[in-house]
Amino acid sequence: MDESTVTDTLGTRLARAIAAKDEAALRGVLAVDVDFKGLTPGRLWEGTGPDDVVATLFGAWFEPEDRIERVVDLSEGADVADTSHVSYRFDLATPTGSYVAEQQAYYRGDGTIAHLRMMCSGFRPR
């Protein structure tokens, strides 16, 4: 994937922060009162504020021993009225094997993400 052709938006910055497991960069794109909901194959996640998002993404969805090896795909979708969309797919390595995961994120915000809805495919064997 040629990331140089992907526009730098809040969504692509969100995806890149997650791929790098960069807590500071993730916090940098989130509003202090971000309203977060996420869906994985087995659970609904909810929170308010960057602490909840960081704890979910880097404490539960991608655990410390999980390595995101590369971004396979990163693309911005068409806006739905005032809501933007980004999708991305990662190749991952965990202590139990190699996987791929895709996430879709819908977000709103001016300068930072104030409203974030994410859906994850879960880790699928490669």
Describe what you observe in this structure:
It is a single chain. This protein is an alpha+beta fold. β1 (30-40) and β2 form a beta hairpin. The model has no long low-confidence stretch (mean pLDDT 94). Strands 1, 2, 3, 4, 5, 6 and 7 form a seven-stranded mixed sheet that branches. α1 (10-20) packs antiparallel against α2. It is built from three helices and seven strands; from the N terminus they run ααββαβββββ. Helix content is 24%, strand content 48%. The protein is globular. It has one domain (3-125): Nuclear Transport Factor 2, Chain: A, CATH 3.10.450.50.
What class do helices, strands and sheet pairing give? alpha+beta
What count of structural domains? 1
Give the tally of β-strands.
7
Q: What is the name of the CATH class?
A: Alpha Beta
Give the C-alpha Rg.
Answer: 14 Å
CATH architecture field: Roll
Q: List low-pLDDT spans.
A: none
Distance between the termini: 18 Å
The major β-sheet equals: 7 strands, mixed
Shape estimate: globular
What CATH calls the topology is: Nuclear Transport Factor 2, Chain: A
Order of helices and strands: HHEEHEEEEE
Tally of separate helices: 3
Helix content: 10-25%
Approximate strand percentage:
over 45%
Organism: Nocardioides pinisoli
Protein name: Nuclear transport factor 2 family protein
